[in-house]
């Protein structure tokens, strides 16, 4: 290699522009974003803030639906409108300013009401990967929710109302391979090492090593040795705290003494002591994964099963046969000499390859049985699936429109949360009641200054009616109802901007199938600046 | 149509919140049209940083009724900013962030007057900072945060040991990293300041030099080796590393690959090399939006008293669902920055045999995290500079002191030291106390 002429890969403009986010979701995540089409219903301040944070990172295309005209009120909460837009189509006006954000993104608008679109073109929403609705009426929510539930298109509905915000995800099923947990699970397989690992671990004779060499042995070797010793002494593996402490003592006693007779504080021994608890449980199949592998969609494959479930089924077969999830093949850093670390890494890596090959073979059989093409799932897909098999996730939400029916299926959940005086469920009830109020009176409670007092009475009636439908005996404080009437339906820009950032990220999660979306409702309170999640 | 007319309609949403009374409002809140007048005309806000957070902060302030806004940023626009810094376009690359951001906001939000300053925060003095009602920080530099924090504390006025509230300028601080972020409010002299909670900023992850040199295991170890050892030795371009120069990154990438190959280490990529050399922090538009929105909501609450403010620290994370956690960071009574000036600040040291360089290491350690402290001893007869690295001639003159013990330098129990550092605009005066005296 000629060292004077660096042959570094040429970076494209796009790679440079998106560098800071590619480090989070990778080129494949970016590809998923760039090929997606998102629909926003209603160009509110909140709506455009959501679009802003998915246009900047490079969504493929977006469509804005809004049948309204720009009013003076809209300008003060919406950054993507200005004075010159008053009286013009709101959808058109925001689309023009939004498109300036990123020349790589396509955008269009439909200057029509949602209701008309659903009536005239029932399959309209089929072409979207995610639909986001803001400030929808009760009727629109019901229409949209049932339509998209049927089309299996993910839906986010959200609202920014005074100091309160709410977002709700409706999705039939969402599967995640790359959930990016803060602590990646590494299964060391020290309780039952596979043959290559066993041979390697037993190739060390720690007692004969000099102090300086001993300091360079990876902690897994040390932990394995004392685990074996513990087993010899007690005939089983340590389970209780006391037993684990005994193992730790064994390791401590194994530390060599320095010239002064004091135990040398070797980092690898310390690492072994620290890892005792984790290593003893890390080989177990996590509860979440056990649940996933016994899921109906995993057990009963059909010709319509998705790649995720076909791979999950193959994984299930593997786990039943081997008793373990596939080895991850990624080794965290640890104190060790390079050659030991690299060797150990190779051993885990080779096993990971063998494991994923085994799962891949099963996947091939399944594809054949299901009459699906052999290349619909690649070997690389299976490798990724196996690598992240400790942290696979599924999210399934309920259908929103079901909840708006006479007797909501999840009423007992709502009732029990309402019984807790500190729960934010009352905000949910009030926001739902406001949707009712709007349907009935065609404006928000307290919209006009001299309507605040009378509207409190009317909103209270809506709240009581909804509470009785849900079957709750709870009482929502008058003060709180008054506060919502005080808001008069206004949107505060900084509240919308907070919520907009949150929801944009939820859209990105849905599109990339990375990270874990909300399940399924969040309430944001800008007064206390906290977020509560409900699983409705 | 008069300008007045446009404004009163523009903020009809804010008017409802600010002019209507309600039973759950803050007890100090007296709704009136005056509040919006105050926000728009009298409440001068300083935004520090016109990057990812800064762009959002300016937009949010403008749409929450603030009109008298200053913004300071010393950076120019780079292509990699465009995935989140939404006031900038491709044609703006190379221009000062503060100026482009201010121009954009002033054009989009009529009536809003953002004044840009393309310079460092250190270029301004007390008189400049004293003119603001609120300061909001959207920085990635901890040193700059600490500097502005100390600056705002230095503006506090005490009358007979009682803090004069009119001298207090609240500091709202936001920070993000990937999908994580935090926002906090600091009432200088009253609530925890940046310095009170220094432990929230753990020093950057560094790899031990012996690992880098002799037992590399990770691709990062190989890159650090090239960066720290091979570059100074071979000096390929006869200058120090410029992370924005592709030929520099290219060279480091090549050499890191070679070193990794020697040790059979996998995973050196161009992107990783860039990340390690430039210490890149991942960033997305959405997290910046969330944190900046929190900061401006709090500024709005402070300016209007419409409801109680964040008390006083919020963390945010949306990797798994959406998660927030708020808590009260605690003020340290003996904080070296925010405890009142009349309170003597003691520094406890183990013994007077401590060498001056050990003392400097101690100041640079986890507890005080100073960067390159200069130390002057205030002896009764006269002040004497013990060490100062900033000025080469003084450095040379005082270098020999580094190996001397504090005792040899005549520092005894009760000696006052004056410490200067880039983390603060004013010198720190501390009184030394030894737990043990060597005879
Ligand atoms: Zn402090």
TrEMBL record, chain A:
Pfam families per UniProt: ThiF
Protein name, UniProt field: NEDD8-activating enzyme E1 regulatory subunit
Membrane as UniProt keyword: no
PANTHER family in alphabetical order: NEDD8-ACTIVATING ENZYME E1 REGULATORY SUBUNIT, UBIQUITIN-ACTIVATING ENZYME E1
Pathway as given in its UniProt record: Protein modification; protein neddylation
CDD domains: APPBP1_RUB (cd01493)
Residue runs in coiled coils: 353-380
Organism listed in the record: Parthenolecanium corni
Cellular component GO terms held in the UniProt record: cytoplasm
Domain annotation THIF-type NAD/FAD binding fold: ranges: 18-529
Family per similarity comment: Belongs to the ubiquitin-activating E1 family. ULA1 subfamily.
Alphabetically ordered keywords of this record: Coiled coil, Ubl conjugation pathway
Gene Ontology terms: biological process: protein neddylation
Molecular function (Gene Ontology), one example: NEDD8 activating enzyme activity
From TrEMBL, chain B:
Protein EC: 6.2.1.64
Similarity-based family: Belongs to the ubiquitin-activating E1 family. UBA3 subfamily.
Recorded catalytic activity of this chain's protein: ATP + [NEDD8 protein] + [E1 NEDD8-activating enzyme]-L-cysteine = AMP + diphosphate + [E1 NEDD8-activating enzyme]-S-[NEDD8 protein]-yl-L-cysteine
Pathway: Protein modification; protein neddylation
A Pfam family that the UniProt record links to this protein: E2_bind
Official protein name in the record: NEDD8-activating enzyme E1 catalytic subunit
Any one GO MF annotation of this record: NEDD8 activating enzyme activity
GO BP, sorted A to Z: protein neddylation
Enzyme type, top EC level: ligase
Function field: Catalytic subunit of the dimeric E1 enzyme, which activates NEDD8.
Coiled-coil segments on the chain, per record: none
Domain E2 binding residue range list: 347-435
Highest taxon in the source lineage: Eukaryota
GO cellular component, one term: nucleus
Residues at the active site: 210 (glycyl thioester intermediate)
Alphabetized CDD domains for the sequence: Uba3_RUB (cd01488)
Keywords annotated in UniProt: ATP-binding, Ligase, Nucleotide-binding, Ubl conjugation pathway
Keyword Nucleotide-binding: yes
